[in-house]
Amino acid sequence: MPKDNTTDLILEIKNLKTHFILNAGTIRAVDGVDLTISRGKTLGVIGESGCGKSVTAHSILRLIPSPPGEIVDGEILLHRDGEVIDIAKLKPTEEAMRNIRGDDIGMIFQEPMTSFGPLHTIGDQITETILIHKKAADKSEAKSQAVDLLRQVGIPNPEQRVDGYPHEFSGGMRQRAMIAMALCCSPMLLIADEPTTSLDVTIEAQILELLADLQAQTGMAIMLISHNLAIVSEMADDIAVMYLGKRVEFGTTDAIFDNPLHPYTQGLWRSIPSVDGPLEKLVPIPGVVPSPRDLPSGCVFASRCSEFMPGICDQPKPVPIVEADPDHFVACYLYDNEQV
Amino acid sequence: MRAFIVRRLILIIPLLFLISVISFVTILLPPGSYVETYVQNLERTGFIMDQGQIEAIYKQYGLDQPAVLQYVLWMGNFLLKGEMGRSFIYQRPVKDVIMERLPMSAIIALASLVVTWLIAVPIGIYSALRQYSVGDYVATVIGFVGLALPNFLLALAIGYWVFAGTGRAITGLFSIEYKGAPWSIDKFVDLLGNIWLPIVVIASAGTASLIRILRATLLDEKNKQYVTTTRAKGLPERRLIMKYPVRVAINPLISTIGWTLPFIVSGEIIVSQTLGLETLGPVLLAAALGEDMFLVGSIVMILSSLTVVGTLLSDILLAWVDPRIRFERIRT
Ligand SMILES: Nc1ncnc2c1ncn2[C@@H]1O[C@H](COP(=O)(O)OP(=O)(O)OP(=O)(O)O)[C@@H](O)[C@H]1O
Ligand code: SF4
Ligand SMILES: [Mg+2]
User: Fold this and answer.
1) CATH architecture under which domain B103-289 falls
2) Predicted ipTM?
């Protein structure tokens, strides 16, 4: 773990495996992921499209549609008030799970345009959450809380807007309202799954600034999923790099940026304009992501890796995770002293 | 909202005008005028009229006037006095014949609509939430049987079963002893014992399509992002489904009321004829066969107008329950 201070941990994911069991075969969307999130910190999760970031996030709130999705192995440990709850063992529909959703853990989604039900006012949908989790005595108190929240996320005229319908809000305003709704019960963890991908750049910057401000005020932790490396480098304390359902590298933001270890992470860095250094020649990672339906039996990155070591990297077993530097983990045989 | 309703009310006026013109054309349409039919009918019973009497009848109905003037006269009488001419078959004012039977027709049509919804909505929701379950298939099959069976056949079959099982013959709306009797609790109970059959039969025809529409929309809606968002807030599943996707999926059904009304009305005509109900259906058929054209034209006009008004009401209802449509329609 990056920080071995267990009192500060709020979420620990251990060897999570979420698979989709289809007639045509099993999609191992998340296949042995470890993550830790500490109080008040931001964990950035990066990786190419389809690597299992959203499935990981949805697994935490048990929002994976079942069938076909299923958590086949692993633990999702929520540290709450001195007790530890294994979310992976809960039934998605049971009350204990519903109490976590929206109350301990809030979530905002990529699609602000369709994130609200179209027939109810924004205010109704926020107050509903407040009332389910009994954070207000009655409707009118909940509504005044909703107005305060809308003001806090920067929506002008919140007293009127609270009675507005989703279609009356622009994309950016809807995402702000979405944030207000996710935060209405003061969760200790906010999962933000690509919260700005469908917004334009100025609005993206405003939303990220808003998230940072709210985090400073409330002390909540954020799990920020993005494939925009610049955003993650700015916001995150720790970074997890995912590839094909595996977490291939994990460390502090500085470590991941200044000293990327995994060949995939190094490839990612070469494929984007350098964040602060001079603009280097961009080198896209060769090859395409294989289908998660027929994963290679050894290292999942083997088919695209320039450092591929025959006889070692293609051994039919999971690649061991190595703590190459203190608090800096990587799943690659290059750093496994027993192999190299 | 008020502006929207007023605008729709204004728009409906030319439509009603068109309906009245078409209905009037059906009056003029048959070969030979209805006075000739009338005279022929009288002659058949041995009553011969002379030319003077025939011309007097022409004058009385204004039939010596050009068609446009006749229309103005007919509409003027209808709008000012509620008169719609005289029925040759019944030998009574058309107004009286229609008013005697219209309420029952309207009750049966409305009740059929309500029953259609009461059957279709729960089944549609169930089918969507338990897609491909046994119940889903059973509902689909029964729905399609209802759709495919001709109404009159279903009415006869159920009527026969009831008769074979209980000895009660469902012909007409009332048993013989209550026909023409003043209203009483017993008469009402007797009515209930009969009226369910046409209602169920007419409703059966419309449920299948309603179930399909609701099932398809709900299947689509329940996988939308807003459902996941709401689930992520911690809402209990049943409340979530009923409050969000089901409500969204019901709205397209409201807009189907407009085009199901004509089916219900024509279904009512056929079923009433089959079961001998004292509604407008059999009168329309008898009037059409007997070329009693004032009666035919007036019934056509009344039924069409009611359908148009029903469609308007369903439009207003839709705008009232769906803020998106309200927004869009009021703006434009
Ligand atoms: N409901 C589902 N049924 C079957 N497969 C699914 C389902 N949801 C996700 N998957 C599969 O899981 C894999 C991981 O998807 P996921 O949405 O987690 O990717 P992601 O990293 O979030 O990508 P993106 O950056 O595009 O959002 C994909 O291969 C996807 O096809
Ligand atoms: S284990 Fe081998 S193939 Fe996989 S990333 Fe490391 S060097 Fe490349
Ligand atoms: Mg995603």
Assistant:
1) Orthogonal Bundle (1.10)
2) 0.87
